[in-house]
Amino acid sequence: MKFIKIAKTALILVYLVVIAGALVRMTGSGMGCPDWPKCFGYYIPPTNIQELTWTENRLFKKGQVIIKDKQLLVAKEDCITGKNFDSKQWNKYTKHDYAKFNPIHTWVEYINRLFGALSGFACLFMAFYSFNYWNKSRLIPVLSSLVVFMMGFQAWLGATVVYSVLNPVKITLHMVMALIIIAFIIYIITLADAKSYSKKSDLTFRNLMWITIIMTFIQVILGTQVRQFIDEQVKSGIENPTLWLSNPEVTFYIHRSFSILVLVTNLFLFLRNRKLSLGFKEMNWVLLLLVLEILSGIFIYYMNFPFGSQTIHLLLASILFGIQFYILLQLKQKNIPN
Question: What is the dihedral of CA 265, 266, 269, 273, to 10 degrees?
């Protein structure tokens, strides 16, 4: 039971990272900390620009960052500055040339990293305790260890996102990896939970459930592409939300229209579940989440991106994916008559 609690805690923390990551992207805080894993060379980031400004007779620790002449400079060693700036004490930061400071962006990104670290430690504890199942099911410790590896890979992806100055492809891959980690942890919990049991299903329900999960996965990716387009609009100087989707790319229309197909297929599963008495109460949640997801999308578009709406939109999609995957894990490879 202790292992299951740890695994569920890890799952919740990963979802919190998804929320934090969505807030980072919504607020444009992805470069709030231009280095990694520290933030401007600090374990606790600065709160005002003065902390990143060169001044005389000030102690700087090795690795701490300042912004000077619109570029990042990194202290070579511990040093106390003199009356005049000494370039020999500093190295130019070479990972990228982004040298801006916004305290709100910095702390939003920092909190995102804190949740990432907490979820990483939770997954590490999960892997440690999973070896209690070694004699019962070696798959549990193997998968738990794999999750730790994936969390490390996810952290590395986060670093590459920063170093690339928010490359859209890497951001999408970062989100996809989060969903994969969620799926693995749910699978581990299902394997370890003695109360979990498989349910009968007909072939149509099982196959269509696979299709709907893939569709949800695709929708999330399409959503990140729409968000990418919005980011590009903001970068081009369009700050008015009413204009962000005034002339959208085809991806937006695919994302919007595809949601109808996702709803229809899941509605079919919901009705089939009731008709055949398959016992998947989770389908009620699936349908509710889908309705809320579509409504939130409509709300975002017609209300011009209210604060927090995009985060809720992504969170609902992530929870939907998790529940659909949980249902899939309960399916038996057994057909029942229509």
Answer: -160
**pTM (two decimals):** 0.91
Tokens 């231009």 belong to 34
- 41, pLDDT greater than 90: yes
With a cut of 80, say whether residue 199 has pLDDT above it: no
Dihedral sign, Cα of residue 86, residue 91, residue 97, residue 100:
negative
Q: How much is the pLDDT for 160?
A: 94
Coil/strand/helix, residue 27: helix
Check: CATH 2.10.10 for 49-92? yes
Burial 122-152 (b: 16+ CB within 10 A, else e): bbbbbbebbeebeeeeeebbebbbebbebbe
Contact criterion met (CB below 8 Å) for 336 and 205? no
pLDDT of residue 308: 87
Would the pLDDT of 132 be above 90?
yes
Phi/psi of residue 247, nearest 5 degrees: -140, 70
Fold of 197-338: Four Helix Bundle (Hemerythrin (Met), subunit A) (1.20.120)
Measured between its terminal Cα atoms, the distance across the chain in Å is 38
Q: Do residues 239 and 318 make contact, with C-beta atoms less than 8 angstroms apart?
A: no
Return the domain boundaries, the chain: 1-32+102-196, 49-92, 197-338
